[in-house]
Hints:
Elements: E1 3-11, E2 17-24, E3 29-33, H1 40-55, H2 63-72, H3 80-101, E4 117-125, H4 128-140, E5 145-150, E6 178-181, H5 183-201, E7 206-210, H6 217-226, E8 234-236, H7 247-253, E9 258-260, H8 271-275, E10 281-282, H9 291-304, E11 308-309, H10 319-331, E12 338-339, H11 345-350, E13 356-358, E14 361-363, H12 376-379, E15 391-394, E16 399-400
Parallel strand pairs: 4-5, 4-12, 5-7, 6-15, 7-8, 8-9, 9-10, 10-11
Antiparallel strand pairs: 1-2, 2-3, 4-14, 13-14, 15-16
Helix pairs in contact: 1-3, 2-3, 3-9, 4-5, 6-7
Bound molecules: D-mannonic acid and magnesium ion.
Amino acid sequence: MKIAKADVIVTCPGRNFVTLKLTTDDGLTGLGDATLNGRELAVASYLGDHVVPCLIGRDAHRIDDTWHTLYRGAYWRRGPVTMTAIAAVDTALWDLKAKAAGLPLYQLLGGRSRDGVTVYGHANGADMAETLDEVQRFRDMGYKAIRVQSGIPGLASTYGVSKDKLFYEPADAAVPTENLWSTEAYLDFMPKLLDAVRVRFGYDGHILHDVHHRLTPIEAARLGKSLEPYRLFWLEDPVPAENQEAFRILRQHTVTPIAIGEVFNTIWDAKTLIGEHLIDYIRATVVHAGGISHLRRILDFAALHHVRSGCHGATDLSPVCLGASLHLNLAIPNFGVHEYMRHTAETDAVFPHAYSFRDGMLHPGEAPGHGVTLDETAAARFPYKPASLPINRLTDGTLWHW
Length: 402
Ligand code: CS2
Ligand code: MG
């Protein structure tokens, strides 16, 4: 089974997506997500200019050899653009291998280890009252786990509060918009918000929260400690994680579980965090961490250290990534939870898929491969639209973490 053709398809059904489509000499097609929010064209160029020419004629069954050819052969290893491009190739090859076998992908990854993939939804509101009502709505939709994000009193905007309540698209302008941030206002408000959640809904159902990289280690330790009475399922991205050792400070002060890694692109980004038990969930994804092959290695390393999966699943990761991720998370032994930010109807029309939501879980379906397809005629109706993620400043103008 040789790779005869490779197409990089950029489309914007509500938001930009990049998809790699591989076609074999016997007519099978495989898809891989190559979407990197705000840097989509960089990955499309990396694929089209530097990867696709190397793929034509290769044996599509040689997934690991192709992965290492693209990783070691690039010389310039790691990084989000390179690893997203490699991820797209890897995912498309796994899709092809499963289709050639006539099996749903999870059957090639060890078979089913659970009934379904438990997901968490995003309850968010401009203030505490609206956020609490959104938590009620997601409970009514059957979610067993709900992420809670709210506007912060005194701040005009903050991360995670979306205009549309089911989807969340932070890349809201061609040139980055600016947000203002106050750690003091945030640290003061969060315990009050989570207390209100537990007073209204009790302790059944998991509650999660995303700090979105905005605290220093000791501030995150203070937040984790202050939220212990509310028994968070996880506190996400409390601190930017370039300095993995800094998480030792959090561990000294709080038992609130820590989740991190949606921006990670290789196992090296998490080696210390996992190896020293500094985190509880790893959020790396099929699309940004080198594909199914590499994410599987990260999750196997995590399993040795009691760390479970918590894969990122925002609206800006395409249905192709979500579909492939569900197959992997159905099979691994150390599954934790999976993020599920829905896609718009426009996106779902461009990416018909076999997965479905039922009883608080996503089910990948039994279609051969990862079960996600691409309607190229529909995709052609949505040309690329420049969009960047926001930037964040402290109230004194200091450029801060978004
Ligand atoms: C967030 C994302 O879903 C999450 O946990 O961190 O919404 C993230 O901000 C976006 O995926 C960035 O493109
Ligand atoms: Mg996050």
